[in-house]
TrEMBL record:
It comes from the Eukaryota. Component of the Mediator complex. GO terms for cellular component: mediator complex. This is Mediator of RNA polymerase II transcription subunit 10. The gene is MED10. GO terms for molecular function: transcription coregulator activity. The lineage of its organism: Eukaryota, Metazoa, Ecdysozoa, Arthropoda, Hexapoda. Component of the Mediator complex, a coactivator involved in the regulated transcription of nearly all RNA polymerase II-dependent genes. Mediator functions as a bridge to convey information from gene-specific regulatory proteins to the basal RNA polymerase II transcription machinery. Mediator is recruited to promoters by direct interactions with regulatory proteins and serves as a scaffold for the assembly of a functional preinitiation complex with RNA polymerase II and the general transcription factors. Keywords: Activator, Nucleus, Transcription, Transcription regulation.
Amino acid sequence: MASSLENLETQLEMFIENVRQIRIIVADFQPQGQNVLNQKIQSLVYGLQEVDKLRSQVQDVHVPLEVFDYIDNGRNPQLYTKDCIEKALTKNEQVKGKIDAYKKFKGQMLVELNNVFPNELAKYRAIRGDDRSVS
């Protein structure tokens, strides 16, 4: 699989270089450059055929759509994983904060319930099998 991806990467790099060269030729087109332009276009078509041949070897590779957004926005797609990890860490901290807040709320609520309804809370704890006293 790694060699297939490397082959695809090589073919895409050559394709990009051909497009860049065609762009230069077309931007300053001279009639005597027609043969060179035709050769570059044929190289471009050949490159696309080679990429198409490699398609079956890399069809099991799944790329998140967000990676294409990174590329469209001119960002390095290799930063996608880093950004995902940073977002996950941030979300993890938020969720941990919520869990801690709910634990504090539960503890405070049990204290208050024990003050107001001590018998009912004792029955509740017995049903749950929770023998801890309210702190």
